[in-house]
Amino acid sequence: MADIEWPEDLVPSRFGIKLRSNKKEFTSPFNGSTQDAYFPGSYWVLTLAFQNLDDDESRELESVLHTLNTGGRVKIPDFGRLGVNHSGIKVLGNTQTGGALITQGWPVNALVLKKGSYISVGDELKILRQDAYSTEAGQATLQVAPWLRGSYQSGQAIEVRRPCGYFKLDDQEVGPDREAGDVNNFQLKMKESFY
After folding, report:
1. How far apart (Å, rounded) are the C-alpha atoms in residues 8 and 184?
2. Torsion 110-104-149-80 (CA) sign
3. What share of the chain is helix, strand, coil (3-state, %, to 5)?
4. What is the SS3 assignment for 72?
5. Which helix H or strand E contains 59, and what residues bound it?
6. Which residue segments constitute the domains of the chain, with CATH numbers given?
7. What ranges make up the beta strands (E) of 28-123?
């Protein structure tokens, strides 16, 4: 199974990113009241639409799809939201899990990430639930969703410039819908994948 990078010149005409929650709903058979139970394990689902691709663009996308069809994963950013221009951001402290991630390497005493910003750590894509402010030591605690799946060690790099998640196909059938004149259209559904 191969992990590949998404080709930078293939930008979807429409892009959707949704969080698929890992919850169970219980309904009382007696009075119809409901209760939700939330568990770790939520993951991202993407929808990508490509319209009016020429033959070269279609060939490039088809090669990505056929690589994924053999069990690989592709690294994909949120095409609609830019990252922030920071580098050298790292995990601070060992074995961090849950919904908070202590980090270092930020400019001091500043708003370093706005809520709704994405980060990636390991092969996980996360979104911030709250604004993140740094301390005078350049440290910030990031409140993230969904919760971390892995346990990250101090020094693990965090990507904030172009955060990406790893995704695999969520469809059994993928390929182009062709029109006359070398016009190719694609509708793709993908889900976050972890090893």
Report:
1. 18
2. positive
3. 5, 50, 45
4. coil
5. helix 55-68
6. 3-78+166-192 (3.30.200), 90-161 (2.40.30.290)
7. 34-38, 43-53, 73-77, 90-91, 96-104, 111-113, 118-121
Tokens 């390929």, located at residue: 175
Q: What is the pLDDT of residues 56-65, one digit of tens each?
A: 999 999 999 9
As given in the structure block, the two tokens for residue 89 are 């951001």
Instruction: Report CA 43 to chain centroid distance, whole Å.
Output: 8
Average pLDDT of the residues of the chain: 91
**Phi, psi of 59, rounded to the nearest 5 degrees:** -60, -40
Please choose, from the candidates 164, 1, 166, 142, the residue with its C-alpha nearest in 3D space to the C-alpha of residue 70. 1
> How many of the other CB atoms lie within 10 Å of CB of 131?
14
Supply the pTM of this predicted model: 0.86
